[in-house]
Design goal:
Shape: globular
Largest sheet: 9 strands, mixed
Number of helices: 19
Structural class: alpha+beta
Radius of gyration: 25 Å
Bound molecules: 1-O-pyrophosphono-5-O-phosphono-alpha-D-ribofuranose
Helix content: 25-40%
Number of strands: 23
Low-confidence stretches: 331-339
Strand order of the largest sheet: 1-5-6-12-11-10-7-9-8
CATH topology of one domain: BirA Bifunctional Protein, domain 2
Distance between the termini: 66 Å
Protein name: ATP phosphoribosyltransferase regulatory subunit
Keywords: Glycosyltransferase, Transferase
CATH superfamily of one domain: Bira Bifunctional Protein, Domain 2
CATH class of one domain: Alpha Beta
Strand content: 15-25%
Mean pLDDT: 92
Length: about 550
Amino acid sequence: MKKYDRITPEGTRDLLFRECEAQRKITETLRSTFEGKGYHEVITPGIEFYDVFSSNSRYFPQDSIYKLIDHKGRLLAMRPDSTIPIARMTATKLKGHALPIRLFYGQRVYRQQPELRGRSSEIMQMGIELVGLSSYESDIEILTTGMEALSSCCVDDYRIELGHIGIYKLLMENLKATPEQKETIHSLIVSKNYAGLSDILEDFPENRTGELLKELPKLFGGKEALEKARGLFDGYDGELLDMLSYLERIFQGLMERNLDKVMIDFGLVHQADYYSSLIFKGYISSVGEPVLSGGRYDELFKDFGESLPATGFGINVDQLASGLLKEGNTSERSDGAPQSENIRIALTKGRLENSIVGMFEEIGYDCTNLKEKGRKLLLSIPDKNMDVVLAKAADVITYVEHGVCDVGVVGKDTIVESGGTFYEVLDLGFGKCKFALAVPKGSDFYSGYSTKRIATKYPKVASSYFESKGMDVEVIKIEGSVELAPLLSLADGIVDIVETGTTLKENGLEVIEEIRNVSARLIVNIASMKLKKTEIEALISDIQEKIRG
Ligand code: PRP
């Protein structure tokens, strides 16, 4: 019997009528913008050999690539990206062609997304690649074309942020850290986790490089970020200063062309590893993630046996279309309600909610509505133009990740378990507890040959803990009161959060290993951080002052 003949796979969807129209308008507008600038269309196959994407220097998480096997048993991949296949094509079919080469594309890319996160696995991408030039003018050409592309699609409220991946790469090279430490530092910079970064870099106390890396994600904003960087980098490696000067020159060049919707972020790091110097992202107000992403990739062609400088960008047409549709819907609202320009903050209901509301009160925010909330889930802090959403912990992350909430308060336990893409800017210092492995008092967890069973509300945390120990366990997901599982002989132990230890004690269990400390965190949507920077920074600084006392 057929089971899946009426639905589409997760992450894919049918587009009907208005959605098609919105997408078509965007692709036509972008096509005419690109053609007007002398770019020529190319299309690469949807399916490539896996080898095209498997070099170390083209990093794409393995598990995000859809793989197939052809009739000769060779591994194929559905393209997760357009730049790499276009580099392959240019290095082979256009070998020896007069330079520069200006190419544009409009095609779908395929990336497996984590389950049930509302992310698309099939994305319509349009973009350009400028091959054979390494000049300042070519970087300006790409950036101005990107900005023109966004404004030609009737997006007025956009921001382009610039970064320089060379600065990050040079500092990481100079830091005497292990590959594991470097991986952790990378993810802490990407998530602007200032507290975590500061902790790990304390292991390198005498190291100026560590100090600079610590500051990198904090260095974002307008011209002042460049000025601050100049002060910080003063007297360090000459190459670093050259890269900074280049970024200043690009910023200045855009200002002179009256393109002032530009920001700087020294903490900007792309997922794909092939970028070599100037990188950038573009945001619009109705979409919680970047709609444009690009930069210079002078090393990528070497993987295909050529030595060609190149730069380019891709636009996520689906996100742009859905953002524009959302904006259209808002302006067409018949109830006359204005679109909220307030900061929207999601709080984890319960203990964390009480602590942050207490903190807000001490800071002097008007929390009357929050204290008299009844069963309401959407409230406001009127004197701060803040809307408050009360949600379950994991949902706080989902709302912030999608940008429907700008900021969230959530436990590190949920962050570690759920993952997600957002900035984790503050350790709030309350909601402190520990992840621990606990077993019935007096039992010898490690004895015997049988595979142990672990009950937990945090299956990812538990699995990765035992994986790191190289130990096979069977993890069973339990929704709450996990202490019951060993009492009922369903499990040999539990991985759970322990605060006072009372629950364990009263149920005859004891901690045998502590896994990690957790506490409440302030998280911020990536696009909101750029588009509502002043308001969000004011909130962060109010909280920070309170924490410091
Ligand atoms: C958490 C945790 C423990 C308990 C630990 O459960 O899962 O059961 O708190 O606190 P303690 O060390 O201070 O005793 P929670 O209260 O969130 O309820 P749940 O187990 O039903 O999810």
